[in-house]
Amino acid sequence: MKKLVLTGAAGRLGSYLREPLSKMCDTFVSTDITDGPKTLFENETYVKADLADLDAMVDLLNGADMVVHFGAVGDEAPFETLLGPNFVGAYNIWEAAYRNKLRRVVYASSIHAVGMHKKTDFIGIDAPHRPDTFYGLAKCFAEDLASMYWDKRGLESVCMRILSCAQVSNPRAVGTWLSYDDLIQLVQRSIDTPITGFSVVYGVSNNDRAPVDNSKAQHLGYRPKDNAEQFASEIYAQNEPLDPHDPANTHHGGPFSSIPLGESGVAHLNLNPDDTAKND
């Protein structure tokens, strides 16, 4: 590709993607609302920009082949907090991509778009939306936006419903883990697959206890290699037996399924402090 754009580049997941994505294009543009990283890769340019500013997004995507859209507030919050970056920002990315004649949007969606489904249902990529939060609702909005822009305007999209892309630190993650290496592979396959149309795929590693079915996304060529079963015995021994009546344990959204709307779900995930952005 001549030009590839990554939004949310200063975030935890975006920071892991900068180097591998920079190797897939001649010109790599990373962007976020905060100040940029201290050092840039040889073909990288950083642009500080607000997703809620349509004109800024149109300028940002000028001349690009594809955009990898990871920019957003990455947690549940009041609707008013999410409206600009997560809802309006998604519209601005797809509209700017359409105006600039991009081929594809690769989008960091989330399991929270279907978070109120039960884990025992082993849902596929065609499961109907059942958001668990305003955050999940924003993911549903963006997925429907992606579907509509494909149907009406011919703009391809891959919506990656990421489960738990962090170190395995709780019982839920034994099934939902997405390793950083598998994340990179997932994004790369979403970019280099020749034809995607509108596609949905779950971002999860090759876990023995994965609670979702990716069989209808085989055309993307995503074949995860890591398996969280290696952590199962230790994680289960460190935690008390789970309450089978708590939605946080029985539904795909985990704690996002049980928290009040507008309150942080990330605060209940027990993330490892080592899961930080790589922006030095």
UniProtKB/TrEMBL annotation:
Transmembrane segments: none
Highest taxon listed in the record's lineage: Bacteria
Positions of the NAD-dependent epimerase/dehydratase domain: 5-162
Keyword Oxidoreductase: yes
UniProt KW keywords: NAD, Oxidoreductase
Chain spans, region Disordered: 239-280
UniProt-recorded Gene Ontology molecular function terms: oxidoreductase activity
NAD found in the keyword field: yes
Protein family per UniProt: Belongs to the NAD(P)-dependent epimerase/dehydratase family.
The name this protein goes by in its record: NAD-dependent epimerase/dehydratase family protein
